[in-house]
Amino acid sequence: MRPFLFLGVRPEDAPADDEYAAMLRCTGLDESTLRRVRLEARPLGDVDLGAWSGVVLGGGPYCVSDPEDGKSAVQQRVEADLARLLDAVVAADFPFFGACYGIGTLGRHQGGVVDRAHPEPVGAVTVELTAAGRADPVLGVAPPTFGAFVGHKEALSVLPPHAVLLARSATAPVQAFRVGEHVYATQFHPELDADGLATRVEAYRFDGYFDPAQASQVVADARTSGVDAVPPVLRAFVERYVSPGDDPVRGRGVLRDEIRVPQG
């Protein structure tokens, strides 16, 4: 099978490695079929989408709504790399799944409004699927309402006009959306469990997501939140786009040949 490409943006090794392990677990893939590139460490370069079954973008401490003059050179380079990638992904309607940072990146790229109007503190929320979400082949594998972990300073306040709203929560109007038929993004973390959240709380204790003195309580609240199972949306994404008959998962192949992302 053609592998999937996982793009990470976390500069800290512990949460970066834990996130990748969680993505492997939730997709059912291994390191040979979900290959990681840490964008904060090196430029993305030229990507031949025809070599991949799909692309997954993880979360991280960057915010696309940060003032441009406050972004580091690395953040600016990561955003430029992802913008070039999304140019090709959206044009080809190529399989893509972005989580948390991915929803802001895709949302801004597609003309949505990403701002600080709907932050959600680190912890559990109840996510509600829309009618389109319940009918969607990826998001629809989740229950109509389910618990998931979030933690973000920015969010989509206005959906891109051509996007399909798939999920919402009481505190964020856009928890998931789709562009075209195969390009997805979620605000919630479909890979995250309480142990992973504890790793991120320690890594980002002083990054403004919560009062550092409350870090232990944030973790304790997560462990007693009732969120003990991650909806299998990442597995559904992989199963939809892996080539028919391939292991470790089966699905309908949606593969592209000779699609390249030009280097900037």
From TrEMBL:
Residues 52-192 form the Glutamine amidotransferase domain. It holds the Pfam family GATase. Signal peptide: none annotated. The keyword Transferase does not apply. It comes from the Bacteria. Keywords: Glutamine amidotransferase. Gene3D superfamilies: 3.40.50.880. This is Glutamine amidotransferase. The lineage of its organism: Bacteria, Bacillati, Actinomycetota, Actinomycetes, Micrococcales.
